[in-house]
Amino acid sequence: MPAYITLINWTEQGLRTVKETLNRAKAAEEALQAVGGRKIGVWWTQGPYDAVFIFEAPDEEVATRLLLATGMQGNTRTLTMRCFSEEEMARIIQGLP
């Protein structure tokens, strides 16, 4: 299943309601599970991003739909990257000339 790393920044609204951040993370995990995905982990961070969410989704359309639905709530802005496991990278490298 494809994996993704999402870097999260709170919006002004998200910061005003920061006490709900654990509930929002749980709701995101439940929405992900409902479509066959899996949370790998979530961490709240210091520095240029407020949190990091790593997850698997059945495909890119499902991942994008979930991220858009989360963004529509107005609490976060995200930057998401597709990431590859060692096994996936081994397959990619095998196809190189």
UniProtKB/TrEMBL annotation:
It comes from the Bacteria. It holds the Pfam family GYD. This is GYD domain-containing protein.
